[in-house]
Amino acid sequence: MPPQDGADEPSARAPLLPPPAPRRAAARLHPLPLIVAAAFVASFRFVFLAPAPSYYQSLFLSLGSNDTAATHLRALTQRPHVAGTRANSLTAAYVHDALSSHSFPTRLTPYSVLLSYPAHRSLSLTASGRDTVHFALEQEIYPGDPYAAVSAEAVPTFLAYAASGSVTAEVVYANYGRAEDFAYLAARGVNITGKVAVARYGKVFRGDIVRNARDAGAAAAVIYNDAKDYAAGNAFPDGPWMPPTGVQVGSTFKGVGDPTTPMWASSEGCQRLSIAEAMASDDMPGIPALPVSGMDGEAILQLIGGDVAPEDWQGGAGAPAYRLGPGPAVLNLTYIGNETMATIQNVISVIEGKEEPERYVILGNHRDAWTFGGVDPNSGTAALLELAQRLSELQKKGWRPRRTIILCNWDAEEYALIGSTEWVEENRAMLTSRTVAYLNVDSAVFGRGFYASATPQLDELLKEASKQVQNPDNRTESLYDLWMASNTSPLTMQSIIACMMTSYGWRSLEIPCSRGMSQRQACGGLLLCGCQMRRSYPSTTAIMPQSLRME
């Protein structure tokens, strides 16, 4: 599916930020807790707020309501809005107008980047003595779904940047598709060369699953949601777990940013790799691949023969015995992708600091979604807009932040953190010398607990900030109490990314909240590590890029 007609074209960069003012004396900070994304705001106390009496804190808490955030969320999720489409361009305009309405200098920053859409997909299963099964490759629309009428606008289920091709071959079961899983198959003498590898989500990045299959010699890959990992209880619409027909879509590109401009910005007139060169990169999966539902995945596994898979490769209660293969079942998989240059748009808004205007605290959230984005990312976008509204009201009462706040609404995050990466690459020198911290909220509501992660420099900030915010479900305790009670903070991709960012010197904070708060790591955090921020701050003689100056 190519970008829809009507997406805005790139235009000349409009200036945005003011030139740095002479540095004035630093001042103490105060808290700004926000119920919709409480820790996202509470951390401001320790990071960037100007000195202010408790009046401003009380005023902030009295402003706005959940209804405001709900209004933004409904507006942003009316239609599917994958990056590069007209629908997503309209969401950019909505965010731009919402921020501009507060008199914040706000700009759309467009980039032309390589995106991937499905042009054709098919998958069928053949086994001796059985009728051929043709998989629909569609997600179920449930009776009473208020969005059923516009669900047809969603991009069909696919894996972005998968190679185009058609493969007919026997099936091999590869567990979670990790390197060690393919090594186990090789040790057991299971021939993977030229076969279709079927693996389940749950342990590694989907792009690594496909890449590992490619490196093991597979001709194609299929990834499914195993009920053992995604259906531990009642499924939607009767519960929170993924239904049997649910399909996980996503990108398989291992890099970050526009694949045609690795390590440099996709600015107008820049040098680029050709689409063919970009798709031939080792960061691309290199073979055809499709995502399927748990129901379809189980149908395939039922017809695989060979040795019985190990116990830890098996499914949950009621699942058939999983075997390694190859065959005798044969899959016919066809995927034709449409890789095309498309326009994406970040929205950048600025609140100039009073004491240290040349130092920046960046608040980020992305806007694009594979479908409607009700949780990821637009619950976070709604929280960002609610925050902006409250800060605007404080400004009307004379408040100014200590440091300059940059509100960033990223585009094409789902593909490869593209919008945030390109903006950072374009403004690398300025951000390297002036950015103090980056705070990110992707999904403001994600489960019932409170979860957050940060680089070590911000660990104590995060703990102290969470103690300043009341748990909205229990007024006798703080978010910190709720967080400690949840006690579920394993080493995950979030914490790994945080460690990566620390090694580059960036201070970054992730705010996952809960029922009315919560989130997971994503968005611009990963790309920001590439700026290698120094821990000392140079004088105000540093050059401000033209794209960020104010008229």
TrEMBL record:
By sequence similarity, the record places it as follows: Belongs to the peptidase M28 family. M28B subfamily.
Ranges for domain Peptidase M28 come to 346-476
Name of the molecule in the record = Peptidase M28 domain-containing protein
Q: Which Pfam families does UniProt cross-reference here?
A: PA, Peptidase_M28
Which InterPro entries does its entry note?
PA_dom_sf, PA_domain, Peptidase_M28, Peptidase_M28B
What are the coiled-coil residue ranges?
none
PA domain boundaries: 167-248
Say which domain of life the source belongs to: Eukaryota
Q: Where are the transmembrane segments?
A: none
Q: Which GO terms describe its molecular function?
A: carboxypeptidase activity
Q: Where is the signal peptide?
A: none
Report whether Glycoprotein shows up as a keyword of the record.
yes
Keyword terms of this UniProt record: Glycoprotein
